[in-house]
C-alpha cells in the first residue's frame, strides 16, 4: 500500500489541489485533518466526481465536499472487527483513530483480506509454570488453557498468521510435550514452528540466548505466550522499522489508587492531605520487536 500520509490534507485545501492529491495518492480517498491531526472528514473519488458534476468552483474548500462523519475504527479494535465493518458497509478504506479522534493510520480491505507476507520470525514464550493459576495449571500449561473453547496460545498464533507471519519459535519448559503435541510442526496452520527447549525457566532475556542466531536476520517479534491482545502485529513491526530503534516495547497504562489519604509534610507540619490519590504508569505489556544484533547479543543459558 502507498504511504497513507500522502493523502492527508488540511480543511483549507481547494478542490483543484484535492483532485491532484487524489490522483497522486492512488488510494481513491483523502483524509482531512486539522493542525492537531484530528480527523475531520474523508473525501472519496466519488465525492470528487459529484463535485465536478455540480460545477463547483475548483477553488472551493474541500470541507464543502468531504464527509464530515466518516466511518472509523478505533486502534483498540481487532483486524477481524475492522474487516467485518468494512464488508458490512462496502468500504475499501477505513481510517483508524484513537479515543480522542487523532488519526493514526488508514486500513484497507485488501490488506485485511490478504495480509502482506512477513519474513520476520516470532518467538512465543510459553515456558512459565503458571503457579498463580493453580490448580488449573497442575496438569495443563497455562498457554493451553482455553478461552472461548480454544487454547490461549492457539488464539495468539492465529492472530499472528492473520497479520502475515509464518515462522514461529515456541519456548517451552513446564509440560512442554503437551505444547509440542498440540501444535506439532505448524503444518496444520500452514506455518513452520520450531521449539526452544528450556531445561529450567530462563525468563525473557534468557530465552533469546537459546535462539539459533544465524537464522535471525530481520527484526524479531517476541511475546508472552499467555497474552491475549487485539494489537496489529504488522503495524507494530512497521512502527519499529520506521523509528529504527534497537527495540520497541509494547506497554499499557496501569492505574494504582492509594487506599488511604496521602499526607505531604514538611518536618512536623502537614502541608496537604490528598484523599485516595490515583497514579498512572506505563508498564511492560510483554510484547517486543527486537533488532537481530540485540538478539545475537543475548547471553546463553542465563536468566
From TrEMBL:
Gene3D superfamilies: CBS-domain (3.10.580.10), Spore Coat Polysaccharide Biosynthesis Protein SpsA, Chain A (3.90.550.10). Pfam families: CBS, NTP_transferase. Residues 1-58 form the CBS domain. Coiled coil: none annotated. Keywords: CBS domain. PANTHER family: SUGAR-1-PHOSPHATE GUANYL TRANSFERASE. This is CBS domain-containing protein. It comes from Allopseudospirillum japonicum. The lineage of its organism: Bacteria, Pseudomonadati, Pseudomonadota, Gammaproteobacteria, Oceanospirillales.
